[in-house]
Amino acid sequence: METVESWVSSLLTVPENSNSLCLSTYLSMDAPTFQKISLDTLEYKRCNSPMEPPCRFFASVNAAENKPFYFLHAVYEGMIAGGAAGVIAEAVAHGGGKIILEGLYSGLAGNLAGVLPASAIFVGVYEPTKQKLLKSLPENLSALAQLTAGVIGGAASSLVRVPTEVVKQRMQTGQFASAPDAVRLIVSKEGFKGLYAGYGSFLLRDLPFDAIQFCIYEQMLMGYKLLAKRDLKDAEIAIVGAFAGAITGAMTTPLDVVKTRLMVQGSANQYKGIVDCARTIAKEEGTRALLKGVGPRVLWIGVGGAIFFGVLEKTKQILAQRCPEPKIEAEAVAAISCSGHGRAYLDGLVLDENKEPVCECNTCYGGPDCSQFLPDCAADANGGDPLFLEPFWMQHAASSALVVAGWHRMSYKYSDNSFNSEELEKHIRKVHSIVRNACTDKRYIVFGAGSTQLLNAAVHALSPDNSSSPARVVASIPFYPVYELQTDIFRSVNFNFQGDTSLWKNNSDAGTEIIEFVTSPNNPDGQLNKAVLHGSNVKTIHDHAYYWPHFTAIPAPADGDVMIFTLSKLTGHAGSRFGWAIIKDEAIYQRMSTYLALNTMGVSRDSQLRSLKLLKVVLAGGGRDIFEFGHETMKKRWEKLNKVISMSKRFSLQKLAPKYCTYFQKISGVSPAYGWLKCEKEEDKHCSAVLQAAANIIGREGSLFYAEDRYVRLSLIKSQDDFELLLHKLNELVAGEEGPKNM
Fold this sequence. Notes:
The protein is an alpha/beta fold. Among the domains are: 2-6 and 21-328, Mitochondrial carrier domain (Mitochondrial carrier fold, Alpha/alpha barrel), CATH 1.50.40; 422-621, Aspartate Aminotransferase, domain 2 (3-Layer(aba) Sandwich), CATH 3.40.640.10.
């Protein structure tokens, strides 16, 4: 089957940067197992095999059965599988047919021209029709579903098969020299209906043939699986197909004899119809004449059945491996537009069991499809969800999509007895090597549930074991409030939070252990901070969550003893909860690893798998795609915000200057994650309250960062809807000030 696999694979090749999640639905080797009866009774199910991906044939019919697009998609897939099986079976059987039935026909190309569309149409109609019927009929009527689907599929394909068969039969009798001549002369002498000569007899033979053959095949396949209690091999499937073909061939031989006599008579009108033809043959030649050629026919159709069904199932398997059902489900949900102001998710709320998830609307949008703007809504610039990267991932839907098998990483640990994916660690090192924002050579890497878990793991690892002299944890104002909140909530006797770093600059007690948090770029003001304290008693934790080209120029690789990064600010996937720390000292690495093992037994294996998939996309093209997209987006947002605030005499923003970026190899424009807004008026002592009262803008007050409440942090990394609403409200606020700003 290698040539079959190569041929089908070439048909399904999709560009890496395709926006479509997948072109093919998830097909299985075993269509009958879709029936509930077989799923309930089989101890062994293909979909549970650790050697194969999960499988369902034409899953799109069930994943989104109320969407016409997905039904047509299923038809398209069936046409690929049926066309491949028909062409290969005809090509192989053609030579055998000439040996078995010498001289009966010639011209393989002509045969293939008819077989390809006919087989494609048949399977394309049969499979989705069968699945619909299996779902609506009782379990014990599965054979009826297959018979009915076979009749419907045969009727559809007959529109192509009958003219092809008429031309072939006439050419075999020597009436015409070529197929084009045959078509032209038949139409000229007998009219268009001449191409459908014997149509009734064709239906009489082929509709029962199609229905019986596929029903026998599927019932035998199901029974074989029940007995074997395992998945069937390719050879076994071919044998089942051969028996199904042989039995059907024997049963329908009389119909074939009648059909052939009617088709070749042309305008002679020797027979007046199907019944007359059968009666005349039996009367003049004997009833045995109705079984003329049964031996060669059974042999030929048996061989053809083995090839056809073997190729059909192999093609299904190839299609299944290219696009599993979960991608179809994801594609169905991703297709819900939500008016561009919201998203539907696979795990979203479903109000009706048989309907799709509801839209989750962006801030200030509502309604079933998020099309309704809520004019009195507040502009929420408080949070730090990095949704500005969502459009990038929508553009890279295919390359970033992920399907996780039901048995994926069920163990607590990886095969090397660790909690960390070795492959993911390799990719993390590659990313830093390309971006040149951190030294990783001869360093250790630990994983955490986002950078948040790693912050306290680092504090724990750097603290002394002697509880009589706990480490003092400090940070420079303004600083990320989690440093204090997390240190306090754990209430360890080995460390405690002591506030602002500047209070310890003149400390001369070398016996006091100090742990300094250095955030670069800083949250909230985007400054590239450096350590303030130095000495043998000082340990430093470098929080580099925002040290990516999205948010800052990269002047040089960071080279701290403990450096912490997070996926959320690299790719935007805050919900995946994945971060990592790069550590110089092995003892610190071991202490952090022990902390993380006892705390959560490592990071979710699913999160690590998704992170690996995302980093592969990041690394494509040297990271240019995501970093250029992220940087340009943030730079434009900063420029727009800065332009508005520059016109105000009531508010000001932090001062940031362009710097040379070693990644972009040029002077990089300012692109911080947050605006650190200051209220300049003496009376505006609580800037967050001023913004909310005057413009209905929600920011994060400065006191949360240990700064004055004259400051407020405004998030620039949320969705485009969020940013545009924030900008609109700030424009109105600044425009309402009295008099122009003195420049």
